[in-house]
Q: What sequence folds into this?
């Protein structure tokens, strides 16, 4: 899901930097306004967990690979703003330390992996929570968010690829692969949320807002 350097043209990379940077700045301001300093240790542990859990699983196409994303679980644990910031930090570390994704495409990758869970995944959990138990709501939201991110990934290549890309072939490969990833991530997200509800429900930020 991470887009490497050189795979998007300059205009697409710049647009991603503007959109991703602006949205991330909003998340930072909202997280700061909430006064969540006491949750920073949990955010640090979550970031370490997602660095390991998001390790690549298998190649999808030239220059990218399939892996779990974890964004929806992050926002369920930490809320949309701190959760989004945490996943952005994970994305930056993956690029700088592991070479997973490019520096010029950080804005695009942050948008796909951190912003979408905050602005799409979290509201979707709250909506689904009205008709389903919280673990199921989180699992479905995780599935949907992964598929939306995969669709954005394909759209970004279609609009801003540095070289000619067979968009239909790319879409079939990426969406097909991430449909499986989304099923796995949805199931794991639901299982983790269910387990936490049983032993440490206070760790689930979404539980407080869903109950209000």
A:
């Amino acid at each position: 899901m991470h887009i490497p350097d050189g795979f998007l043209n300059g205009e697409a990379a710049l647009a991603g930097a503007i959109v991703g940077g602006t949205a991330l700045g909003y998340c930072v301001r909202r997280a700061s306004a909430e006064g969540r300093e006491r949750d920073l240790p949990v955010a640090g542990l979550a970031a370490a967990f997602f660095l390991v859990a998001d390790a690549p699983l298998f190649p999808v196409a030239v220059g990218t690979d399939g892996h779990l994303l974890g964004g929806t679980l992050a926002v369920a644990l930490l809320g949309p703003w701190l959760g989004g910031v945490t996943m952005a930090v994970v994305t930056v570390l993956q690029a700088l330390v592991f070479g997973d994704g490019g520096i010029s495409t950080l804005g695009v990758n942050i948008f796909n992996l951190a912003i979408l869970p905050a602005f799409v995944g979290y509201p979707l959990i709250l909506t689904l929570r009205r008709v389903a138990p919280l673990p199921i709501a989180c699992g479905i939201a995780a599935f949907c968010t992964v598929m939306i991110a995969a669709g954005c990934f394909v759209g970004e290549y279609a609009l801003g690829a540095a070289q000619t890309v067979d968009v239909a072939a790319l879409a079939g490969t990426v969406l097909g692969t991430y449909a499986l990833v989304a099923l796995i991530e949805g199931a794991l997200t639901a299982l983790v949320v269910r387990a936490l509800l049983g032993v440490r429900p206070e760790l689930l930020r979404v539980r407080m807002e869903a109950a209000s």
User: Anything to note?
Assistant: The longest helix spans residues 167-199. The first strand starts at residue 58 and ends at 61. The radius of gyration is 16 Å. The CA atoms of residues 121 and 141 lie 6 Å apart.
